[in-house]
Structure formats: structure tokens, C-alpha cells
Amino acid sequence: MDEILSKTDGRCAYCGVDLQGKYHKEHVLPKSRGGVNSKRNLVASCERCNMRKHAMTPDEFRDFLHESIDKKITSFAADVYDFISFVDPSAANKILKSIAELQFDISYADIAFYANDILETIIYDKVNNGE
Predict the structure, then answer these.
(1) Are 70 and 121 found together in one domain?
(2) Tens digits of residue pLDDT in 2-37
(3) Which of 17, 19, 29, 50 could form a Cys-Cys staple with 45, CB 3.0–4.6 A?
């Protein structure tokens, strides 16, 4: 394993995916922003991260990723809410409350966990109430 790839143990410096030896040499501080071609300024990244980072600094890229993830999670939460509202309108408030309790420190797994818990409760209630 070469020196640049070994810095990140064979993983993308930004998303952590296993590069399996195939990687882009990515400038931490972009050349267009004053970065240089030195081993200290190069890290291994996957093609996707390298293309998305483009001329951003690491802080700018991190902010970009957080904004992108927040939008996707908000959209996913809305889809889950819509589905649960369709299955059982009274349960929709339960998922909103669960999400609000997490104070937006939430992941897809959190949303899926709460949605699954709520759906199990809905099914249990319907079975026990003879519906």
C-alpha cells in the first residue's frame, strides 16, 4: 500500500468507503486555493467524494455534506410521516413527537427504528381490537 493510501488505512478520507486499492489523490487544500502537490496535502479519496469536493476546503466540504444529509433525512422523515399518516392518521403525531424528541440529531436508522416501532404498535392494536 502506498504512503497516501496508507494514511487512511485504504479508506476514503471523507466517507470512509474501502477503496480496494482504487483511489483518487485528492488535494486537502485545493490547488486553486493555494494547495500544493505534496504528500502532506494529498489524501486518498473515492471518485465520488473527489468530484463532489472539487475546490472546497475540508470544512466547506463537511458543511456541504451535512446540508445534503440534513435535506435527505428531512425528506425521508416526511415520506415516513406520509406513509404512517396513510396507514393510521392518529399515529402520525407519534412519529412527529419521536423525531422532535431527538432534536434533529437523527439518522435514517433512527427514523426507521421509530417508524417500525410505531407500525408494530399500530398492527398490535388493530389485531387486539379485532380490526
Answers:
(1) yes
(2) 899 999 999 999 888 899 989 999 999 999 999 999
(3) 50
Same-domain pairing of 42 and 65: no
Closest CA to 73 of 62, 81, 83: 81
In the structure grid, which three cell numbers stand for residue 10, read together? 485504504
Q: Which three cell numbers stand for residue 45?
A: 479519496
Q: How many CA atoms lie within 13 A of 85 on its CB side?
A: 8
Domain enclosing residue 35, as ranges: 3-56
Cα dihedral 14, 15, 20, 24, rounded to 10, equals -40
Write the pLDDT tens digit of every residue in 76-113. 767 777 777 776 766 666 666 665 555 555 566 666 66
Residues 70 and 119: their CA atoms lie apart, in Å, by 24
Q: Which amino acid is at 35?
A: G
Give the span between the Cα atoms of 25 and 35, in whole angstroms.
13
For the chain, what is the domain count? 2
